[in-house]
Amino acid sequence: MAKSIVQKILENHIVEGKYEQGKEIGIRIDQTLTQDATGTMAYLQFEAMGVPKVKTELSVSYVDHNTVQIGFENADDHKYLQTVAAKYGIVYSRAGNGICHQVHLERFGKPGKTLLGSDSHTPTGGGIGMLAIGAGGLDVAVAMAGGCFYLSCPKVIKVNLHGKLRPWVAAKDVVLKMLDIFTTKGNVGCVFEYGGDGVKSLSVPERATITNMGAECGVTTSVFPSDEVTREFLRSQNREQDWVEIVADEGAEYYKEIDINLDELEPMAATPHSPGNIKLVKELEDITVDQVCIGSCTNSSYKDLMTVVNILKGRKTHPNVSFVVAPGSKQVFENIAREGALTDLISVGTRIAESACGFCIGNSQSPKTNAVSLRTSNRNFYGRSGTKSANVYLVSPETAAAAVITGKMTDPRKLEDMGIEYPDVKMPSKFHIDDSMFIFPNEIKEDVEVYRGPNIGNPPQSESLPETIHGEITIKVEDKVTTDHIIPAGSKMKYRSNVPKYSEYLFEVVDPTFHDRAEKIKNAGEHNIIVAGYSYGQGSSREHAALCPMYMGVKAVIAKSIERIHNANLINFGIVPLTFKNEEDYEKIEQGDKLEIPDIRNRILNDLPLIVKNKSKSIEFEVNYNFSDREKEILAIGGTLEYMKKHSKNA
Ligand code: MIC
Ligand code: SF4
Fold it and tell me: Per the database record, which ranges form the Aconitase A/isopropylmalate dehydratase small subunit swivel domain (predicted)?
């Protein structure tokens, strides 16, 4: 039978279940990655599992998110991560080595392998032909301990790319087009598999830009074939031996197929405050721009930065623009520096930032009040930049560079009128490679003592599922509430390993009174319940969006729909994700209503209908749930950590 790329890789890794769309499967994970903001908790959970060494082929711990280090907290976390890595056989990528996804693509990604990462943009690895999936830290800890990763066997959507991008139109515009077509909701359980004659015209970093932002559509992952272009990239990284060819079989069947003609695309932008609000740049022309930020795991490769440098060389940053560049990795940084391009950037008036997430996560470079900020990153959620009144537009490096010169939103094709030629940057045949910012576990021989600074607390315990949930709707939110709304990153991210402190910021952007109200309800021995619209929990993989609510006594979320990673995180921490059977019931209930979900434990375990009683309004409504037997057991016992402990004891 003719097979898709997705089917080939999944079938090679299935440990439990069968390749049958919609059914839960358990797969073996070859590689894991963590970053510091999610990794600290993931390793604390891994330690709690009592496994002496990681059981994957490769696990890498990156430090790229919390590198600002105002106060001791971040540096303490880094040291914890370094010592844990040495102890358990994990490669440690030091702060300064770059953003996890860019570095992993350069140095470790292998076609045909599975990669699980505690970051939602892990699908970047799909650019090199891996099946790379983002998950909560606890799922990654389980994979490091040798457990399966469970997912719903996906609906594979084939995206046929035709032709070739025209000058000034970039890979970013391809994925913005995908967002225009698929939007940011309704794609749970799907995977994008790219193919068609247009694929060969895209370099690996361009493919990675496209797979990176598939995360914004909410798909499980995106994947490109592994072909001669992949081989060349691996050769340039001195890793040709890691190459295998992976292409879809002729006649493979898909859930759906779409076609995109690359030569018809135009420069695009995601407008405030969602990556799904797509417009053509030419429709936005003349908007005054205050800030331009180039970097993030979406667009910070050698090719991206050399394109920008070639556009800007010999010119100066517009006086009203603050222009920041954060190279994606030390390798990118060093290679552009060795070619003299760093000097060109400095001379343009660029504010060079560290090779890290930086501006993308709002822990530096927050723009001024009411600013328009053009960014090459992947998320422009409300408040994420650190300035609530700012308007963030997501664009290609070409469009970003044009605004650096003009000080306004400019279709980069217009640069030709200013005598600027399109810089057709070629990938180098060999990168300058220096792996000295990694610490490989076999370099450390002696017994390692794990360092735990005062910021490191133990993961909080969750409670088993009660017979009846009774409590209050502590918060009712609308559609597309992201994990950035649930628990902010930015300057608060340093409390990731201190759950009681971090929980104080729950729903800060939406309703800063949430924490105190939830605490009161919890202290009164009642449960907190969250009610939401469509696509609840979209965006990041941060499990704190479930862990902190769990700590505050949230026991159920009732939504119109819930996104994949967040849904899994809720289950991992013993919070029951439920959806309205009749969506009109969402309108009939209010924040503050007293709810009761009688007999919930028995009903879920025995697949019986579940009724929610609204005591305040004397009405009741039915809710849906969809749990595998494994998930039911996890919920009943009170979370994955408890489940793992029980099963490792029984093993
Ligand atoms: C993000 O881009 O939102 C983050 C910060 O990288 C998150 C992870 C986190 O919150 O630590 C993600 O994408 O998963
Ligand atoms: Fe870092 Fe931004 Fe990428 Fe998240 S999206 S991993 S914060 S660069």
Answer: 504-583
